[in-house]
Design a protein that fits this description.
Layout (H helix, E strand, L loop, with lengths): L4 H24 L7 H23 L3 H30 L12 H7 L2 H10 L2 H4 L4 E2 L2 E2 H20 L6
Antiparallel strand pairs: 1-2
């Protein structure tokens, strides 16, 4: 069995599903409510998984692999940036943390889309709260590492030395 782009796409899809599954587990079983930045990170994991799934199903040639890689890499960079923003918010002293904002449902039902979207991307005081850690790192830290790994896997899927 040799390493092919399809195996890498399958790995990316499985990794994203596992990450999203654990996020849903912590939400519905452990009772950890996601903040706006957490939800945004989930959206980027879904986007990466969808692109990888389409590439897995269609098995594109070299140009298609470059396009899939570009979309997955851009999504990984964007998701990693959102995770980094949350890590930064969590590192702020308590007196510098922004005030907690309205719920996501309220923002999208009562604010113009542009304002709700910018509020979602910037995060608020809810995003600065550390409610879960593993080996001393919060969930956004681990998400940032996951986005880096997914980006590297996406790059590997487009390398010409990977056999088709």
């Amino acid at each position: 069995m040799s390493l092919t782009p399809r195996w890498i796409y399958a790995f990316i899809v499985a990794s994203c599903c596992a990450l999203l599954g654990y996020a849903l587990y912590t939400q519905y079983v452990d009772g950890l409510h996601p903040c706006p930045l957490c939800i945004t990170q989930r959206a980027f994991f879904v986007l990466i998984a969808l692109v990888a799934l389409i590439a897995l199903i269609t098995n594109p040639h070299q140009k298609g692999r470059y396009v899939a890689t570009a979309f997955m890499l851009l999504s990984s960079i964007a998701g990693g940036s959102v995770a980094y923003r949350q890590v930064w918010l969590q590192s702020l002293p308590p007196d510098q943390v922004p005030a907690c904002g309205p719920s996501l449902e309220y923002m999208f039902s009562n604010l113009p889309f542009g304002e709700a979207f910018s509020t979602l991307m910037l995060g608020d005081g809810n995003c600065a709260e550390v409610v879960w850690t593993l080996f001393g790192l919060s969930m956004p830290n681990w998400s940032m590492f996951a986005f880096i790994g997914l980006g590297l896997a996406a790059i590997a899927s487009a390398l010409p030395m990977i056999k088709r």
